[in-house]
Specification:
The complex is a heterodimer of chains A (279) and B (262). Chain A has 2 domains: 53 residues, no CATH class; 215 residues, Orthogonal Bundle (MetI-like fold), CATH 1.10.3720.10. By secondary structure, chain A is an all-alpha fold. The longest helix of chain A has 35 residues. In chain A, 78% of the residues lie in helices and 0% in strands. Chain B is α/β, with parallel strands linked by helices. In chain B, helix 3 crosses helix 4 and helix 6 packs across helix 7. A 6-stranded mixed beta sheet of chain B has the order 6-7-8-3-9-10, sandwiched between helices. A 4-stranded antiparallel beta sheet of chain B has the order 2-1-4-5, covered by helices on one side. Classes of the chains: A mainly alpha (279), B alpha/beta (262). At the A-B interface, helix 9, helix 10 and helix 13 of A face strand 6 of B.
């Protein structure tokens, strides 16, 4: 139905009726899609400004001070290099988790016996926060880049294994039977049926895992590295209680996390996986 | 009901599919369920046989055994004289549209079984079968953009593209609306006219079986046995209001024990 038709429908029916509810569910206009979240951000900034001014706090910076903090970081040349360092660690840890997680999840989803063997161990390790591994990570990897990368790996690995295993288990048997009927060799079965069949749900798992990995990077960078957005926050607090820089670091993490998630959502629209994301 | 007609190639040549003393029993933890018992059936090359029975009577199980997806508990299934050892690309099972791969386009699906061919041969073959099932213009479409009937065409084309001797169709039009179903039957007969495959078609729809089949194998309830084999001696295209059509259809209704009234 076209938009004017929907509006006539909305106007013609009394409010509160089920029909009105249907008409209200129409998609937002592009302007509203942009202006509504922008308004929320402005409102949050305003409340922040008011709260700081009214309470006359000496510790918590004003929005403008944080903006100056950003400029300072930019001048020192650390803003982008720290963001790059954090992204590199997340990229490595998440990449390794994706490779190993899918490689383990596929056989777990296919072989009930193997699943019975390994799954209890996974379920035992899964609830342990990656941060609990910090002491061990330092023993194993020392004060190197590898320690935080390892923590990020752990954070991302388990969600990916679980998503892959359940995706493999829910492949409709008809797909395997059809492939078997065409006498597809084993390798081709994996490449041409199994992997494409699980891709949408694995992609969802990867998206969740990337979100967690990015959240963990801050804590992971408290492990004796001297760069990264997590280090920036810790260092700004320790060296001179620079809360403007702390908040600048936090906002940077939030913004990059948002972009990563948007990027993953973009992938969901690719033709090879789009079928898995339709209600 | 039994009609003696001169049918080509039933008695003289070797049957394409020969089923002897076939029975199937499934073991559940607390009991044995006998699904099929003592089935004997021959299907001639190029023949279209409908297996007709009530839902849950085991006709799909029968088809799965003939196709090699299940091993029989008793008896033998031979194709061209050879015992069936497993699924085989010379004999393709067509599912209800569920078997279409959603991550592949229409072209990708139809060419799925042709990986042995060269790129040019594959293209030519795919184009031929796209045309045969009337999907020109939808080559690049994904299954979720197609209607149920179109997805079913993709399945049939994918099966035909590997040029099998035998097609197994398991209620292929069961999920379609009645108008599309009627069209698809016409399409199947048109394709069968050209391709002359041996077709085993499982259905619970009496009209469907009388419209399509050379012979209808009427199954009983569980444990399913062959109640009767009815030869449909009406030439194609079949007139669905002809006396002979109604006579044969009502005969099957009576055989199953249904009064032909609603």
């Amino acid at each position: 139905m076209s938009e004017p038709a929907l509006e006539r429908l909305a106007a013609a029916t009394p409010s509160g009726s089920p029909r009105r509810a249907i008409a209200m569910a129409r998609p937002l206009s592009p302007a509203a899609r942009l202006l509504l979240p922008l308004g929320a951000v402005l409102l949050a900034l305003l409340l922040w400004q008011l709260a700081v001014t009214l309470t006359r706090t000496q510790v918590f910076p004003l929005p403008a001070e944080v903006a100056r903090g950003f400029a300072e970081l930019q001048r020192k040349g650390v803003l982008w290099s720290y963001a790059g360092d954090s992204l590199r660690r997340v990229g490595l840890g998440f990449g390794a988790a994706a490779l190993l997680g899918i490689a383990l999840g596929v056989p777990l989803g296919r072989a009930a016996r193997l699943d019975r063997l390994v799954n209890p161990l996974i379920q035992l390790l899964r609830p342990i926060s990656p941060l609990a591994w910090m002491p061990l990570a330092v023993i194993w990897f020392g004060l190197s880049d590898l320690a935080p990368t390892f923590l990020i790996f752990l954070a991302a690995f388990f969600p990916i294994v679980v998503a892959t295993t359940s995706a493999v288990r829910t492949i409709p048997p008809a797909f395997f039977r059809a492939a078997g009927n065409f006498a597809l060799p084993r390798g081709a079965l994996l490449r041409r049926v199994l992997l494409p069949a699980i891709l949408p749900r694995v992609l969802t798992g990867l998206r969740v895992a990337l979100g967690i990995a990015w959240m963990v990077v801050v804590a992971a960078e408290m492990l004796g590295v001297d760069s990264g957005l997590g280090y920036l926050i810790l260092d700004s607090r320790n060296a001179g209680k620079r809360y403007d820089l702390v908040i600048a670091g936090m906002l940077m993490i939030g913004a990059i996390g948002l972009l990563l998630d948007l990027g993953m959502r973009r992938l969901e629209r690719l033709p090879a996986v789009r079928w898995g994301f339709q209600s | 009901m039994t009609v003696a007609t001169a049918r080509p190639a039933t008695a003289t040549t070797q049957p394409k599919v020969a089923i002897r003393g076939f029975g199937m029993t499934f073991a559940t933890p607390d009991k044995q369920v006998e699904v099929l018992r003592g089935i004997d059936l021959d299907v001639a090359p190029g023949e279209l046989v409908c297996v007709l029975g009530p839902s849950g009577c085991g006709k799909t199980t029968l088809l799965n055994v003939i196709a090699g997806f299940l091993a029989p508990s008793e008896g033998t299934v031979r194709i061209d004289g050879e015992p069936v050892a497993g699924p085989d690309p010379r004999r393709i099972f067509v599912f209800q549209e569920r078997g279409v791969f959603p991550w592949l386009t229409v072209e990708g699906n139809i060419g799925f079984g042709l990986w042995r061919l060269s790129e040019t041969e594959r293209r030519a073959r795919v184009a031929h079968y796209v045309r045969l099932v009337g999907l020109e213009g939808f080559e690049r479409a994904y299954p979720q953009e197609l209607s149920g009937g179109m997805k079913q065409r993709v399945e049939v084309a994918r099966a035909l593209a590997v040029d099998p001797d035998v097609l197994y169709l398991d209620e292929p039009f069961g999920a379609l609306d009645s108008i599309t179903r009627l069209q698809m039957r016409g399409e199947l007969l048109r394709i069968q006219e050209r391709e002359r495959k041996t077709v085993l078609f499982v259905t619970h729809d009496i009209d469907e079986s009388v419209q399509l089949a050379d012979r209808v194998v009427v199954m009983s309830a569980r444990p399913a046995q062959v109640r009767k084999i009815v030869e449909i001696d009406i030439p194609h295209p079949r007139d669905l209001s002809s006396r002979r059509y109604i006579e044969l259809r009502d005969g099957i209704f009576a055989e199953i024990g249904l009064a032909h009234r609603v």
